[in-house]
Amino acid sequence: MSATTVTARARQRSVKDVARSVFKRQETGLLGVIIVLGLLVSLANENFLRKDNLYNVLQTVVVVGVIAVGQTFVLIAKEIDLSVGSVLALSAVTAGSVYGSGANPWVAMIVGIGVGALCGLAVGTVVVLGRVSSFIVTLGMLSIARGLTQLITGGLPQTMPSELSFIGQGRILGGIPVSVIIFVALVIIGQLLLTRTIFGLRVTAIGDNDAAARTGGIPVGRTRILTFVLIGTLAGLAGIVFSTQVGVAEAQAGTGYELDVIAAAVIGGASLSGGRGSIVGAFLGACLLGVLRNAFILLALSPFLQQLSIGLVIVLAALFDQGRQGNLRHLSLKALRQRFLARTGA
């Protein structure tokens, strides 16, 4: 056999291996689901595939998607953040309040995002130094941030600077929303940060086995704190985007968003057991939620069915994650048959 033939076969195997690995990735399957769902909806309502509607779908998922980027890092580190909706609101009203006091609009925006980062720093510090479950700490921060929001606003909406309105309402490059471009840029940066930097590798190692990571010299506590600072910063940025979309910062903004954020990250492949996740997957997870909601609106279906369908998608995604980890082997036909035979004594 000639060297040329061997090289050609090796290349063919390499291409097949790459193709097989791509098709096995959850992101590929998720993208396929979104495409199939989009085609089905478009058959029922031709308006779905209109450019303006597709831009609208992306624009509606920007806020949840931006925070889902940070939530993915937190989940990979085997933690969770339930406070993001309240931190979003606190950051937005802080920016509006600072602007209302006469500050420069850009300074107000930076202060608002900084408040989100400080909330993340506070949560991370308590989790790491106090050794308290992130579930409990962020649940507490959810109430603290929401209470501070009410104190700052007195229940009244805060006007956002008109100079920042282009962030939430502006369009460039033939009608693409500025907020969507920001979202896509953050997804690219987040994916590179997760897969191509020491920080990202440390986060993955900690979520996979924090004891081994600590033994290997990784600063586990500091890395975990940084993940909470990251999600707090992104929640602050999402607060600016959300408030500039609607023109005002309200005390009730972001209520319930924490569930959508977790759903987007989990649907996108982030494991609740830590150690695994994808920023691109979180992007696609957020898009799937957006497509579902848009489909229900276009098809004039009940909003109660919308909540039901999203809940089912979350449960199915969690089950898929468990199956991927091999935790559902006891439900295989072989395992069930062996259990049946053992009980019947056959």
From TrEMBL:
The keyword Transmembrane helix is assigned to this record: yes
- Classify the source by domain of life: Bacteria
Major place of localization? membrane
Where in or outside the cell it occurs: the entry states: Cell membrane
Q: Which Pfam families match?
A: BPD_transp_2
- Keyword Transmembrane appears in the UniProt entry: yes
In terms of CDD domains, this protein maps to: TM_PBP1_transp_AraH_like
Ordered alphabetically, the record's keywords are: Cell membrane, Membrane, Transmembrane, Transmembrane helix
Mode of membrane association: Multi-pass membrane protein
Kindly give the InterPro entries that the UniProt entry links to this protein.
ABC_transp_permease
Q: Where are the transmembrane segments?
A: 28-45, 57-75, 82-100, 106-128, 135-152, 172-194, 225-242, 262-289, 296-320
**Protein name (Swiss-Prot/TrEMBL):** ABC transporter permease
Starting at the broadest rank, the lineage of the source organism is: Bacteria, Bacillati, Actinomycetota, Actinomycetes, Micromonosporales
